[in-house]
Task: inverse folding
C-alpha cells in the first residue's frame, strides 16, 4: 500500500503538467508577422522532364515571410529552389552528353494565407496566389528541344499560380513546426502553364516558423 501511495505522489506532478498543457495552454493571439524556412520533396509536372534529367522528384528548399493584413489574413511571400542533374545518355537532337545537363529553377510566390486563430497548440491554414518562375539550363541541352529541335532552351522567366494547405503545431509560444502541401502551375517564355508543360508541380514540405510579434 505504501508503494502505491508513493507512486501516486511521484506521478502527480507529471499528470498535472500534462493536464495543464492539454486544457490550459493558450497560444499567442494572432501574431502580426511570421518568418521561416522549410525542406521539401518536389515533383515537377513537366511530362518529358526525364528525357534529359534523372528524375521528376527532387529536394527543394525555401523560405517565407508573412505579414498580417487583417483578421486571419496574411500577405505571404515564398521563395524556393529546385535543381536537377542530367541523366546518362546522349541528346539525339544535339549529340550533347546528357550528364552535362543542369536544371536550375527558382520561384517567388506572392499571395494570401488564411490562418484561423488557433485554440490550442494545433492550427491549420490555406492559401493561394501568383508564382513567378526562373529557369536555367546548361546550353545547348534543354528538355524542350529533345523532341522539337527548333525549340529554344527554357532559360527565362514566367508566371503561374499556386495553392497550399498546411497544419502547424506551437512548440513554444513563438515557434511552430509545420507540414505543408502545395501545388503550383507555371510556364516560361509564353509556354503553356497547364499540367503537362508546367514547370510547377507538387511540393510536400516541413519546417519551422517563427512568430516574433
Result:
Amino acid at each position: 500500500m505504501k508503494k502505491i501511495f508513493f507512486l501516486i505522489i511521484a506521478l502527480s506532478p507529471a499528470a498535472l503538467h500534462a493536464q495543464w498543457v492539454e486544457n490550459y495552454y493558450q497560444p499567442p493571439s494572432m501574431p502580426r508577422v511570421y518568418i521561416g524556412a522549410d525542406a521539401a520533396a518536389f515533383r515537377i509536372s513537366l511530362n518529358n522532364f526525364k528525357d534529359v534529367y534523372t528524375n521528376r522528384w527532387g529536394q527543394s528548399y525555401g523560405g517565407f515571410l508573412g505579414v498580417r493584413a487583417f483578421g486571419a489574413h496574411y500577405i505571404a511571400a515564398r521563395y524556393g529552389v529546385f535543381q536537377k542533374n542530367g541523366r546518362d545518355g546522349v541528346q539525339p537532337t544535339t549529340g550533347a552528353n546528357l550528364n552535362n545537363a543542369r536544371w536550375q529553377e527558382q520561384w517567388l510566390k506572392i499571395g494570401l494565407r488564411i490562418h484561423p486563430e488557433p485554440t490550442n497548440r494545433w492550427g491549420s491554414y490555406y492559401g493561394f496566389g501568383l508564382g513567378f518562375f526562373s529557369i536555367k539550363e546548361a546550353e545547348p541541352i534543354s528538355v524542350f528541344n529533345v523532341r522539337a529541335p527548333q525549340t529554344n532552351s527554357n532559360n527565362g522567366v514566367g508566371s503561374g499560380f499556386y495553392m497550399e494547405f498546411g497544419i502547424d503545431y506551437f512548440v513554444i509560444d513563438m515557434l511552430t513546426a509545420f507540414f505543408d502541401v502545395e501545388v503550383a502551375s507555371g510556364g516560361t517564355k509564353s509556354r503553356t502553364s497547364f499540367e503537362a508543360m508546367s514547370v510547377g508541380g507538387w511540393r510536400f514540405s516541413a519546417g519551422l516558423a517563427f512568430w516574433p510579434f
In short: The longest strand covers residues 156-172. Residues 31-210 form a domain with the Porin fold (CATH 2.40.160.20).
